[in-house]
Amino acid sequence: MFGGFPVYSVLVLFLLSISNNSVHSERVVCGFSITFRERSAEYGFEVADIPISLCTHVVYDGMELDMFASYHPYGNDTIEKDWKSLAELKHTKPELKLLGSIHSPLLMQVAAEKESRETLTENMLKYMERYQLDGIDLYFGDERFGPHEEFYMLIEELKSRFTAAGHSTWEVNVEIEIIRETIDHARLCRLADFVHVVGMVERKPIYNEYSSTPMAKATFDINELKNITLERALQYWIDNSCPADKMALGVLFIAQPFTIANGLKNGEEPEELMTLCSVMKERPICSYVELCQIFKETEWKMGWDDMEGLAPHAIQGDRWIAYENEASVGRKGEIARSKNLAGVFAISLGMDDYRNKCGTLYPLTKALIRSFESPTLESDTTP
Q: Which GO CC terms are listed, alphabetically (predicted)?
């Protein structure tokens, strides 16, 4: 967790369970969170802002659990209004798939008890039928190892109950870090319809012997493999029984600002910069809709943390920002295409320029989709 907001690198793998008779099709998954509604009037994100013409799937992070696994599907008027509005999107685009997401730290406690799993399953069934949902995301986090046996059981029981109720096409998805240890990749792929594999912690700037300016680690450590690239990280999952055509690559559009006033010369930790951006309400993170305006209004020195074009940063005086631009997300889309993955996932719409403040509406989302659909990246390296 980073400032109350889960910060990961730009990676999310989706492992899609496809029947032997299905036809491969490209997936463009778009995510947004209920917290985006809480922004100021100008930046408040509504269901009506979702560019459904770009998305094949929409994931809404608006589900919570309590200690007794009693899911409260109708207890929040705002959430209920959102789900009704989401269901209405299907009138415009009937083929659109709507997914709910549970990011509760209590999920592992629920999974540990058979009775709690049964309660959750029945509540989810009622909720999803009410709002015409097509799937659910389960977040596995805050633990170094896993998943545990009970979590696999939860996935299997949800899928089995949905099928018994006549909803065999409903997806049961899992979100998990790409660097997670002790994963049974084959089992996870077999049980889940999607597995969102999120990689990397926050990109903190440090000085190293190869650069005169601070840079952040932009590679991955997975079990015995150290400092591997995105392509190798994807291949690791493929080599461990997760077929490429069951994966989709997600990109997190988050920007992480730090202050390097202490110089970082003696091993000091950079400090999170709380004052650069205001849209995220006192969190040390920035959304691109605000960051692109900051870059336009003042002069920044742009650079990269890697040689692959995946991890851009910006420096102004003692301020340092790790962020995503059109080129970096486009490069990730190219890699997804080169690995023959099933699709891409924009995380999330509310972190993009959804107000067209800098010349293009949803520039990061469009760059990701464009690069995945074409072997040639068309965007440039400007922020």
A: extracellular region
